[in-house]
Amino acid sequence: MDDLLAEFVAETREMLEAIEGELVAWEAEPSDRARLDNIFRFVHTVKGNCGFFDFPRLEKLSHAAEGVLAEVRAGRRHADSRLVSAVLAIIDRITQMTTAIEAGEELPVGSDEFLIAALEGDASDVGETLAMHSAREDAETKTTDAGPQAPRSIRLPVALLDRVMSGVSDMVLARNDLARRLRDAGNEPTLDGPFERLSGILSDVREAITKMRMQRIEHLYNAIPRLVRDLSTELDKQVMVDFEGGDVELDREMIEMIRDPVTHLIRNAIDHGIEKPSERLRAGKREIGMLAIAARQSGNRITIVISDDGAGLNTDKIGEKAVSSGLVSQKELDAMPPESVTDLIFEAGLSTAEEVSAISGRGVGMDVVRANIEKIGGTITVSSNPGEGTMFFLQIPLTLSIISALTVSVDGQRFAIPQSYVEEIAHGASASVEFSRVGDTDLVTFRDRRLPCLTLNNVLGVKPRGAGWDQRLVLLRLGSGDLFALAVDKIHDQEDLVIKPLAPAVMQSGLYAGTTLLDDGSPVLMLDIPTVASENGLVSDVRARPAQVTVSEKAVVEERGRTLMTFVGLDGKRRAIGMQLVARIDQVPHDAFAIDDGRAQVVVDGKIMTLVGVGNDTEQVEIPAGNVKLLRLSDSECELAYAVAELGESVIITQDLASPEGDTRLEGVALIDGELIPVVDGYRLFAKHGSIATPVEKLVCRLPEGDDWVDRMLQPLVAAAGYRVASDPDQTADVTIVLTDTADAVDTVDTVANGRVIKLYSDPNAPIGKDDSIYRYDRTALESALRKARIGDRS
Amino acid sequence: MRELILMFDIAGRRVAIPAVEVQSVIELEDIYPVPRAPDYVTGLTAMRSQSLTVIDCRKALGQESKTEYGERSPVIELDGHLYALLVDSVDDVVETQSEITPVAGGFGKEWENAAQGMVETDRGPTLLIDIHKLIGGQAAIAA
C-alpha cells in the first residue's frame, strides 16, 4: 500500500477509535456540544483527506454528514435520535470502507444514497432504517474478519522516537563500557554467552530503531509536483517533473533538513533554468522543460541529483556579477576555469537574477543552501552546460546521530574526524609525501599537489610542532572543495560513533562538534573540521582560488594512476585491491560467518553475501573472535564480502603492476612505499564467486508432483540453480525432471511443452552415462545438467 | 522550609548545593583534557558510559587552581549536560534549618558571582551555590 494511503488509513482509524466513545455518548445526549464538535471534526477531516485520494464515495458520505452536523452546530437543526442514527450509520459505512481500503480490497458494494437521504429532515422510511442497520452489521462483521491482512501502522510523535533512539544509543555506550569491564575482569565463560546475546539483540534493536526513523524520500517528492505546477503556471512555462529513487530511505530529520534547500533548487531551476516555451522552441528543444530529481543510496550516503534541461548557468553573467560585487577581481576571474566560475554561485552576495522576482531572490541565496547542506554534513556541487542544462549534486549522510568517523591521536589523546571530510590518508614517511615550510606555514606536496598542511598539535595547542615524516596525514576536503592536510601522530580506526552534544563551555572553543565514548570507555572529541579550517584561513577564500586551481589542473594531468586500497588479510599478509570495487566497509560479529565445506557466507544487514578472503578448500583461515572487518566489494551487479584483519591506506599507483608470477588469484604486484604488495584480481574474484546473475526471466522447471523427496530435496536444489518451479501442469517448462520410478511415460514426454528432460534414477547402479540420466543423489551431475540446460537455452 | 543540601569545600570555604541537583558523587578516574577549552574546564571524563565535563570550581570562581583535589566529585546536570565538579573535598548531605537569606555586604567579589544566599545548618551558616551561575556564568563571561 502506498505510504500516504497507509497514513490516511492510520489517521482515520485513530480518529475512529477516539470518537467511538463520543458516538455512544452523543447518542445518549444529542445536545452535548463538545461531542458534536468532535464528531464534526472527524467527518470534516475525512472529507478533506479523501478529496486528496480520490475516494468519491467516502467524500460524498463525509460531506453529507458534515453538512448536517454543521446545521446542528449552527442551531438550524435539532439533533434528534433519528438524525443521530443516520450520522452513526454513515460513520459505520466510513469504518467499513476504511477497512476495505486498508486490506486493499474493493470498496463494499451498495449504494450510499439511502444513507445520505436518511440525513434529510423528512426521511422516515422504515426501509431506510433497516438498511442502516444492515450497513452497521456489515461493518461489524467486516472489522472482525479483516484482521491482519495489511500491516497496521500507527502514528507516533517524532520526539518519542528520538527519545527511544537516544536511549538505545546510550545502551550501546553502556554495553561498550560493560564489554571493557568484562575484558578487564578476565575470562568469564558464564558471562560471555549472555553478554554476546545482549550485544546481538542490542544491535538488532538499534538497527530497527534506525529504520523506524527512516522515511522514504517520496515524502519529500510528494510536495514537489504541486510546487512545480504553481511555479510554472505563474511564470508561463511548461515543466514536467520526473522522480527517481523514491524508495530511498533516509532519516526523517534529514528529510526535513533538506526540504528547504531542495525546494530552493527547484524554484531556481524553474525560475532561472528552464526557458519560456517560445525560447525553447527557438533553441531547438521541446516546449516542455524537464526537471529530474533522482535519489540514490551509496554506502552511508545519499546522493540527490536535481537536473534541468534549461539554459544552464551563464558564466559570463556570474563572472560579471562576481567582479561587480567585489568577490573576485577581473584578473582573478580571467584565470578561472569555467567550473570555478559556476562554483561562484555558492558565494554569499551573488544573485544572478536580473530582477528580484517573487519566486527567487527572497534573500535566500545559494550560499544559504550550501550552508544548510554542510550543516548536516553534506556537500553540494554544480555542473552546467550552457544551453543544455544544470545539474546540482547533493550528498548527504543517512542519519544525523550516528556518524562514521576516523579516530586519530595527538600526544596520546584521541580525536574523531567525520569520515565525510576524509579524502585520503597517507603516511608521512611515504615517498609520495614531501614536507616543506614557508615561513611558519607547513606545506605538503602529495602526489604533485601542493596543499596547506595543519598539524593537529598546533590546531589544539598541544605540544606545537611542524609537520614531519613521523606523522600521518589525513587529507580533508571541505564542502567548498578546498583540500588540505592535517598531520596527526597516529591514525587509529574508522568507527561508527554516536555523537552527543557538548557542554556549552567546551563548545565555545569552536573546535569541536560533539563527543562520544569509544569502546574502551574513554571520551573522545569530534573535531569541527570546517571551523578548524576557517580559523586557519583555509576556507573557500575566493581570492585564493585561482592559485589553487592551477595546481589542481596539473594534478589532473598527472594523476592517471589507479587507486588501490591496501589491507591486511586474515592470513596476516598485506594485499591491495582496486578501490573502485570497494563499495563500503562494514564490521560484523564473529557469529555472522558461516563456513563449511568450502562454502563461505556472511550475513550483512540481513543479507547473505558470499565471503572471500578466508582461504580456500586446502587452507582455511580462522575467523578471529569479536568483530571482523569486511570490505564490501561490488561490481555494480553483485556484492562480495572480503574479510580482512586490518584496513590500510588508499594509494594511487602510476606504474603498471608487475606480473603475479603464476598466481592466478592476483592481478599483479604493486610497488607501494617500497614494499611489494600483491593486488587481488577483482575480475577473477567476481567471475568465480559473484553469484551467477540470475537471468531476468527465470527458466521454468517442471518437477514430479506429489513426491516428498522432490519437495524436500530436489525443489530447493532446483531453485538454487536459478529455476522457477512450474506450478501449473499446463505451463510450458524449459526443463522437466522425471523420476524413473514414477515416470512410466518418460518417452512420451512432449519436449515442446516440457523442454529438456532430466531423468533421475533412485538406483545408483542403474545404467548411467546416457545424457541427462542421473543418480538422484549425484548432486554435481544434476547441477551441471541444470546449468547446461540453461546455457543451451541462452545460446 | 527544610531542604537537603550537599556540603563541600571550595577554596577552603564551606559551600553547599541543593541535594536534588546532585546526580551522584563519583570518584574521578581519568580526566581527558580538552585542548583550547576555557581554563576552568579541566577536561572530560566518563561515568556509566556517559561523558561528563569536569569543571574546576576554583577556576570557575576566578581563583587560583589547586594542584591536588579530593577524589570525590559531585555530578550535576545542567541543561541536559552532565558536569563533574572538582572541589577540595565533599562533606555530607545535611538538612537546612532556615530559608535562604542574603548577607548584608554580600559574600565577596568572587563568591558573589555564584552565590544564591546563606542558609543555616546544624554545622553553622553555609553559602548556597547557584550551579547555573557557577557554570553558566563563567561561560557567559568567557564568551
From TrEMBL, chain A:
UniProt xrefs under SMART domains: CheW, H-kinase_dim, HATPase_c, HPT
Record bears the keyword Disulfide bond: no
Q: Which residues carry this modification: Phosphohistidine?
A: 44
State the InterPro entries in the record.
Bact_Chemotaxis_CheA, CheA-like_dim, CheW-like_dom_sf, CheW-lke_dom, HATPase_C_sf, HATPase_dom, His_kinase_dom, HPT_dom_sf
Reaction(s) catalyzed by this protein?
Answer: ATP + protein L-histidine = ADP + protein N-phospho-L-histidine
Q: Would you say which domain of life the source belongs to? A: Bacteria
CDD domains attached to this UniProt entry: HPT
Keywords per UniProt? Kinase, Phosphoprotein, Transferase, Two-component regulatory system
Q: What class of enzyme is it?
A: transferase
Q: Which residues form the CheW-like domain?
A: 402-538
State if tRNA-binding is listed as a keyword: no
The record's GO molecular-function terms, alphabetically, read: phosphorelay sensor kinase activity
- Annotated coiled-coil segments of the chain: none
Q: What is its EC number?
A: 2.7.13.3
Example of a GO cellular component annotation carried by this entry: cytoplasm
Give a single Pfam family match: H-kinase_dim
GO biological process entries: chemotaxis
Where is each HPt domain found?
A: 1-101
Q: Which residues form the Histidine kinase domain?
A: 149-400
PANTHER family found in the cross-reference section? CHEMOTAXIS PROTEIN CHEA, SENSOR HISTIDINE KINASE CHEA
As for what it does, the entry says:
Involved in the transmission of sensory signals from the chemoreceptors to the flagellar motors. CheA is autophosphorylated; it can transfer its phosphate group to either CheB or CheY.
| Official protein name in the record | Chemotaxis protein CheA
Q: Which organism is it from?
A: Pontixanthobacter aestiaquae
Organismal lineage: Bacteria, Pseudomonadati, Pseudomonadota, Alphaproteobacteria, Sphingomonadales
Automatic annotation (TrEMBL), chain B:
Please state every residue range assigned to the domain named CheW-like: 2-140
Pfam families tied to this protein: CheW
SUPFAM superfamilies assigned: CheW-like
Q: Which Gene3D superfamilies match?
A: CheA-289, Domain 4, SH3 Domains
> Per the record, GO CC terms?
cytosol
Q: Which InterPro entries does the record cross-reference, listed alphabetically?
A: CheW, CheW-like_dom_sf, CheW-lke_dom
Gene Ontology process terms (BP)? chemotaxis; signal transduction
The record, for PANTHER family, names: CHEMOTAXIS PROTEIN CHEW (PTHR22617:SF23), CHEMOTAXIS SENSOR HISTIDINE KINASE-RELATED (PTHR22617)
What protein is this chain from?
Chemotaxis protein CheW
Q: Which organism is it from?
A: Pontixanthobacter aestiaquae
